[in-house]
Design goal:
InterPro entries: Cyt_P450, Cyt_P450_B, Cyt_P450_CS, Cyt_P450_sf. It contains 16 helices and ten strands. By secondary structure, it is of the alpha+beta class. The protein has one domain: Cytochrome p450 (Orthogonal Bundle). The strands form three sheets. The protein has a five-stranded mixed beta sheet with strand order 1-2-8-5-3. Strands 4-10-9 form a three-stranded antiparallel beta sheet. A two-stranded antiparallel ribbon has the order 6-7. β6 and β7 form a beta hairpin. α9 packs across α11. The longest helix is centred in the middle third of the chain and has 24 residues. The chain is globular. Bound molecules: protoporphyrin IX containing FE (HEM).
Length: about 400
């Protein structure tokens, strides 16, 4: 899903590179082919990441005042950092998320998910509807992140509200009143982060120890709290919803003929929580034969790249293990490729392995609803109830990319 209404922005089939004006006045070059998206991601000199966190709807003075009142600053740290500090900051974060440390979380996470699934099964059996987003997706990634990276001691609900407010403030089409309210929410939590950045242990202490300024520590924590848990929460919900409409895949999981890891990759290809990601052209150049003036906002349509027929055998079908399934760009590519990919994969694998059997006997009461947002899917809920004994759930999957 691009911004609502964008599907109609281009007359006929999408060209490889299309110029589109968004609803708030910005012009973007939308890149639709896998090879071109990859080419841009792989070359951070020609295509800089500086605009990755720019607000899509320019933030008006009144909301900016609210942010500065909380001493909000977002210097280049990770995703939007093209400078020489990027590799060092990235290495410190990557160490905290090392594959061995991530793998060590599996027993804890499996036990937690198993307990929750048992509770959900009992409620479904009693005939009650259950919101799988709230029960299996919303908080698990944050709990996992907190075990790997020391985080401010804030209630889960407060972190989730802050993260979702940040995704809306920076990536949604907004009016001034909403911006003001979101700026207050984001600013409040930013102040908590600032305090923690100065005194917290773990990752914050390591970044401070490496000589990074408090602004950099806050920026890294800010991005991790948003990118490092909200994205995976969204993905878990989108994947569970998709699997509800894929009875053959679930049968394969049951029979052991379909691998959980292949289901996760096919899910990332077809239901990526991050639909687009931005870069900015550093010089006058061309992309796939299209002239690109310096300063152009490049909107890389990651979700569409995952469905490129040049890469994947059956682009629209959920076929775990099919040719090209793993070549999706859901985690980006190149110097800024997602450092949390291993963690996200582990979380999704555990949830699929433990929760897929639940989906064999449910009907969707309320599919996930996704608000208008340039980049993030942000599903809000996913409610199911038990299907009567003689029917098996086969609900059509929701809105695709
Ligand atoms: C399904 C879940 C996730 C998806 C789809 C996802 C996707 C992405 C994408 C598209 C980027 C930009 C890559 C680029 O510019 O080439 C990114 C960057 C990043 N992600 Fe993730 N991510 C996920 C989960 C996570 C998790 C669990 C963490 C950490 C706990 C994380 C931490 C980061 C960081 C730190 C960056 C910036 C890397 C850099 O600029 O060097 N992400 N992610």
């Amino acid at each position: 899903m691009l911004f609502r209404g964008w599907e109609a922005a281009v007359d006929g089939p999408w060209p490889d590179v299309a110029t589109v004006v968004d609803g708030v006045g910005g012009t973007h070059l939308v890149v639709t082919r896998h090879a071109l998206v990859r080419q841009v991601l792989a070359d951070p000199v020609t295509w800089r990441p500086d605009n990755a966190l720019d607000a899509v709807t320019p933030i008006p003075v009144a909301a900016l005042r609210v942010l500065t009142g909380h001493r909000f600053r977002l210097p280049p740290t990770l995703a939007n950092n093209a400078g020489p500090s990027h590799p060092e900051i990235r290495a410190i974060v990557a160490e905290a998320l090392h594959p061995d440390r991530v793998a060590a979380q599996r027993p804890w996470l499996t036990a937690l998910v198993r307990t929750r699934v048992a509770g959900i099964a009992a409620e479904l059996a009693a005939g009650r509807p259950v919101d799988l987003h709230a029960r299996l997706a919303a908080d698990l990634p944050l709990l996992a992140l907190a075990r790997l990276v020391e985080l401010p001691d804030a209630p889960v609900g407060a972190v989730k509200n802050f993260a979702r407010a940040a995704l809306e403030l920076f990536w949604a089409p907004l009016d001034a009143d909403r911006q003001q309210a979101l700026a207050a929410e984001v600013g409040r939590f930013h102040a908590v982060l600032r305090e923690f950045a100065g005194a917290g242990g773990g990752l914050a202490a390591r970044l401070r120890g490496a000589g990074h300024s408090p602004d950099v520590v806050v920026g890294a924590l800010f991005f991790l709290l948003v990118a490092g848990q909200e994205t995976t929460s969204q993905f878990l919900t989108l994947l569970l919803h998709r699997l509800t409409g894929e009875p053959e895949v679930r049968a394969g999981l049951r029979a052991g003929t379909v691998a959980v890891a292949d289901v996760v990759e096919e899910g990332l290809r077809l239901e990526p929580p991050i639909v687009t990601w931005r870069r900015v052209a550093a010089t006058d150049t061309t992309l796939g034969g299209t002239p690109v003036p310096a300063g152009s906002s490049m909107l890389l349509w990651l979700a569409r790249a995952g469905r490129d027929p040049e890469v994947v055998a059956e682009p629209a079908g959920f076929r775990p293990g099919q040719r090209g399934s793993r070549r999706h760009l859901a985690f980006g590519a190149g110097a800024h490729r997602c450092v949390g990919a291993q963690l996200a994969r582990l979380e999704a694998a555990v949830v699929v392995a433990e929760a897929a059997p639940l989906l064999d006997a449910v009907t969707v009461v309320r599919p996930p609803w996704c608000p208008d947002n340039l980049t993030f899917r942000m599903p809000d809920a996913f409610v199911v109830r038990r299907t009567s004994r003689d029917t098996v759930a086969d609900t059509p999957a929701g809105e695709g990319a």
